[in-house]
């Protein structure tokens, strides 16, 4: 299975998502999007394929979002794409592409909907158990 993850190794959610992909027995193509940002055309396509708007892909925390006035609802997609192009940190992560679809995997276990069965237990970095020893997703309350 061909899988691509737009990844930030400094992000716990991104690290957990990558680990869940690997727990399914898949070694994905890892794109560290801060080093190799996707083109504006690719960002638009990823949003569309994920059923999201470009605005949905914006990250506010730890970014220049507020300083750039990106909360203004009148800003066009082109303007938002200009901002993402100039400041890749504005692109929320992790974005995962599989033959099953594209998703912004927040929380990280959202990636399970795009993958084959897990190959064993998975515990997130914070200690939350999301997959049992039989590779089954653990229901959350």
UniProtKB/TrEMBL annotation:
Family from the record: Belongs to the ArsC family.
Presence of keyword Coiled coil: no
Record field: catalytic activity: [glutaredoxin]-dithiol + arsenate + glutathione + H(+) = glutathionyl-S-S-[glutaredoxin] + arsenite + H2O
Entry keyword set: Arsenical resistance, Oxidoreductase
EC number: 1.20.4.1
Family annotation (Pfam families): ArsC (PF03960)
Leader sequence segment: none
GO terms for MF: arsenate reductase (glutaredoxin) activity
Name of the protein in question: Arsenate reductase
Top-level enzyme category: oxidoreductase
Transmembrane stretches, start-end: none
UniProt-listed InterPro entries: Arsenate_reductase, Arsenate_reductase-like, Thioredoxin-like_sf
């Amino acid at each position: 299975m061909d899988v691509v993850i737009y990844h930030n190794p400094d992000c716990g959610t991104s690290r957990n998502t990558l680990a869940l992909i690997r727990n399914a027995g898949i070694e994905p193509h890892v794109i560290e999007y801060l080093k190799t940002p996707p083109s504006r055309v690719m960002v638009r396509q990823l949003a569309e394929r994920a059923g999201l708007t470009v605005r949905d892909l914006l990250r506010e925390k730890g970014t220049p979002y507020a300083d750039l006035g990106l909360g203004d609802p009148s800003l066009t997609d082109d303007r938002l794409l200009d901002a993402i192009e100039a400041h890749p940190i504005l692109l929320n992560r992790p974005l995962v592409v599989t033959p099953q679809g594209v998703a912004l995997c927040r929380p990280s276990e959202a990636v399970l909907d795009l993958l084959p069965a897990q190959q064993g237990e998975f515990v997130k970095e914070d200690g939350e158990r999301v997959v049992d020893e039989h590779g089954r997703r653990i229901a959350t309350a």
